[in-house]
Amino acid sequence: MITLDGVMQAPGGPEEDTSGGFAYGGWTVPYVDDFTGKIMFEQMGHPFDLLLGKRTYDIWAPYWPNHNEAGNFIGNGINKATKYVAADVPFTPVWEKTIVLEGDVAEAVKKLKEGSGIEIQVHGSGNLIQTLLKHDLVDALWLKIFPITLGPGKRLFAEGVIPAAFKLIDSKVSPTGVIFANYERAGSVKTGSFD
Predict the structure, then answer these.
(1) Quick check: helix, strand or coil at residue 24?
(2) Which residue, 31, 116, 29, 127, is CA-closest to 86?
(3) 20 to 30 Å CA-CA from 169: which of 135, 138, 179, 187?
(4) For residue 187, is it left (φ>0), alpha (ψ between -120 and 50) or beta?
(5) Could you report the per-residue pLDDT of 80-97, keeping only the tens digit for each?
(6) Facing residues of 101 across strands?
(7) How far apart, in whole angstroms, are the C-alpha atoms of residue 71 and residue 52?
(8) Which string of b and e fits 136-164 if b means at least 16 CB within 10 Å?
């Protein structure tokens, strides 16, 4: 979930992530509708695992275990998923099915990608995403681009971005103006051409 100017910080609520003095938390709420719910079901209504940064884990761990009721496909999916957490410091997980990634995060993610084949999704986790982009570990982007600008805030494409080509595989626009654009990795960028 990003704004037109690329901000991804605290989309769900005012107190979600106020780091850096961010004061615009909850910016997605006015745009969420049944159309958005349908897209989210397509993306999260099947088995998947999660790769999360520590800050996102700390925000989600007290919330999602308490939202596992019947019919809540997002809560059910998140709670059933194995949660791989990239953390700078050791910690004891409080949420079931949590595995702390130790050592070099990029190497740990490479090993995960060689594993069972279950889809690994990343939500939030802005710092972790920078690491994944820097080490060319992103296979797909499912962007939800909201029709607002915020100015300050954590950005999806920040200091970790390397030249990379992506192919648009699906796009839709909600009645509230949210653009859903799904991209797959499509090679690298070489001296003005894509391969």
Answers:
(1) coil
(2) 127
(3) 135
(4) left
(5) 999 999 998 888 999 999
(6) 86
(7) 24
(8) ebbeebbbbbbeeebeebbbbeeebeeee
